[in-house]
Each structure stands twice: as C-alpha cells, then as structure tokens.
Amino acid sequence: MGDVAHSAPDGIRFGDLESDFPEQRINTDAGVVGFRECGQGPLAVLLLHGISSGSASWTRCAGFLGQNARVIAWDAPGYGASSPLLPPVPQASDYAGRLDALLSALGVERCMVVGHSLGALMAAAYGSLAGQRAAHIVLISPALGYQYEGKKHLAVSVRAKRLQMLEEKGIDAMARTLPDRLLTADATLEQRASITRNALRLNTGGYRQAVEMLCSEDIARYALDASRGQVLCGDHDVVTTPEQSADFAHRAGLPFALVQGAGHACYIEQPERVATALGDAVERLGEGAG
Description:
There is one protein chain. By secondary structure, the chain is an alpha/beta fold. The protein has a single domain (18-289), classed as Rossmann fold. Helices cover 41% and strands 16% of the residues. The protein has helices at 59-65, 92-106, 118-127, 155-182, 189-199, 204-216, 242-252, 266-269, 271-289, and strands at residues 23-28, 31-38, 44-48, 70-74, 111-116, 134-140, 229-234, 256-259. The protein has an eight-stranded mixed beta sheet with strand order 1-2-4-3-5-6-7-8, sandwiched between helices. Strand 7, helix 7 (242-252) and strand 8 (256-259) form a beta-alpha-beta unit. It is globular, with a radius of gyration of 17 Å.
C-alpha cells in the first residue's frame, strides 16, 4: 500500500459533518489521489463524483453506507488534492486508470464502483479496463458524453459554452447557479449549500480537463455486463433526465430504477434512498461471494 497522509476513522458517527468523512491523500503509481473514507465491511464501495463536485459531496450518503461497507469517495484527477492527468484532452479510460491505481494503493481487490453523472462515464470505462476489480457498477444519472448517438451536434457548442462561462464568470459564479439546476424546489437549505460549497472547491485545470472528456466521449464505448451493473436516476432530474437515463439503460441491457423525490444530485437530496439501493447491491454481492 502507498503512504496515506493520515489514517481513516475506525467507524463513522452518523451525521453530515465532513469531519466524519475526513479528507486524505495517497501516493499511487499514477499520481497523488485525494479521497475520503469511512465505515467497514467485507466490500469496498467506490464513489465517483460529477463534473461540478468532489468527494465531500458524498458525506451524508456515505454515512448510511458506512454502516455495512468500507466506503471510499475519491477526488477525480485535477480535483481536490488529486494531481491532474497528463493529456489535455483525456478520455474516460485515463480516469479509469487512475482509479485502478488508487484501488491498488489502498489494497482493494474487490469492490462496487458507483459513478454519478460524469463519474458514471468514468465508472463505465473502469468496467471495461483490463484487470478491473469491480464486482458491480452503478451508474447514477449517467452523463453519456457528447459523442453519444444523437448528441454529437452539441459537442462543440457545449464545450465552448462551458469554457467561456469558466473564463468570463469564474468558479464562484458557476457554483452559485448550480443548486437550482441540480436539486428540486423541495431541497433543504443545507443541501443547496452542499452543492455550492463543493463546487467552490473546483480547480480550474481539473474542470477544463473534465469538460474536454465530457465532450469527446461516448459511454456506449464501454459495454457493461447486465449481471453486474444498474442505472439509477432522480425522478425530477432535468440534466440527465429519467427518459434519457431509462433509454440508455434499455439500450445497454441494464436494470433501471428511479430515485423518488430527487433531482440530478439525487445522492445529496435523497441520501438514504440512494444508500438503500446501493446497500441492497452490497448485500447481494456479499451473498454471491458466500
């Protein structure tokens, strides 16, 4: 194993304080990776955030999951303390390679990988990586990439709009517009603050690389086995809509389910419901291993 900056907690005190899910970093064969860890159990659950977020966004969901599993949320390359990838226009497979280096450094041999939004593209790519360690992959409100069928005509404009907004308005202005788009009107003030707080931690370089990946990728490149994958989506998601996510799941042959009472950031708005769905998968994997 690599050298961890400070040790993870022995367990987790239920709550929403980030001190229960402390930030750490580890040196891997592919670079430094920032991550958070809590809980314990026979299976590790890897949580991958989306383009405008970070590892701390999983805090409350991890609090539920950590009661029965070892829970690890990473900061993607270029986010938090994680060193960026070398290619200026990385592919999802580059992120997958860094994820495998993290798992190796942490001594994880078997896990469930959960990716939200852009993190779902990374999770899908990881499932196609040679020697990958995922027994199950969950794609939550998956970003399909702008090379996906029916989206290619949007790639240039989406890239230009996102990078122009970053250049002209900066991270601060972007962060403050996100809650209205990622959550429903019923979201709590704390949930809205969580969205903004995590977006304010974005690194410009890492965000740029993520935009390039989003616009140059196609999730259909990464075939997942229906027996070890599933798709979830918030029932009020306006970013990766239930219709889009259900259609993708159908094409990919993956089980699909809605998270009730949630927008795009469903694991923030409905952490217990998402954790319950993930916990059911953890339990099934445990039974299968037995």
